[in-house]
Amino acid sequence: MIVSASRRTDIPRFYSTWFMNRIRAGYCTYPNPFNRNQVVQVSLKPEDVDVIVFWTKNPRPLMQHLQELDERGYRYYFQFTVNGYPRQIEPRVPTLEECIDTFRELARRVSPQRVIWRYDPIIWAAAFDEGYHFNMFARISAALRGYTERAVISLVDDYRGAWKRMSTIEGLRPCTPESPGVASLLRRMSDCARAAGMEIVSCAEPYDLQDFGIRPGKCIDEELIQRVFGIRVSADKDTGQRQACGCILSRDIGVYGTCRHGCVYCYAAGLPGLKLEHHDPDSPSLVGRYEANPSALPVQDSPSGAPEIAPVQHQLPLLLDEPASRSCENVNRYLDEGRCELK
Predict the structure, then answer these.
(1) What does the alpha-carbon distance between residue 198 and residue 211 come to, in Å, rounded to a whole number?
(2) Which pTM was predicted?
């Protein structure tokens, strides 16, 4: 099993204490969003976890725990976003200089293979045009030369209503390969990445960017895992993600709406009507306190990819007006497609 920590929030930055508490306990839980009376228990025992994939804009709070993760026998790598956007776009992300320093320190600690740079997403607007993005990408790629082997890019889109949250950006316009200046930017970025010793791939792009030297990527990638860690994992696609996403199956332990970076483009930050429960670093779940039946087995991936669901010990509120029979993995897809929203 691969653990994603997490597409839904920045666990390394905001919840590293909770995460390490769950590592020591050997499991975590999360409720079925369609029925909070059902709880998924995920084993975090080293023998049950193939790899942990961390997603972050600031891993520094977790870095003090990496030695413990190593000593416990965990394999892991990082998806580390460094964009350099101003506070208008990324209000609570560290400065570009701080991000680069942290990236380099992390890469020295775990190796460049295990820290992947994300320049994501590319916002297309009056102040963020071809010249802006190429200069920023060139600056960051030069600073990270020798500290990573892969750059990941994506073009901003209206995923989960992100366009509405970005409406205050002056001159915001669609960003596709057909948009004026975008094709030129992609070619220049591709050349720039290779000059810095990096391959460049796209993330969940519906467009074919291979003419620009940018192949479709997988953020959770079985080939990278085999190359870096020497283990084989299933290449089955994660059907809970967007159609254009190439990632393989994983178990995400995060919760939408809990990231505090405040990035205006973030798809995980603006679910309508979301009411979050209290975060307790000692709870088995990231928010609230969801305990699975102690006799329940740790979650295992079935052939269909659906999790086993254990009955909850403490009844908690229902947050979605959908049948309880839906699987947890379908929730992600329905939210992605706009077929339901949190109440």
Answers:
(1) 17
(2) 0.86
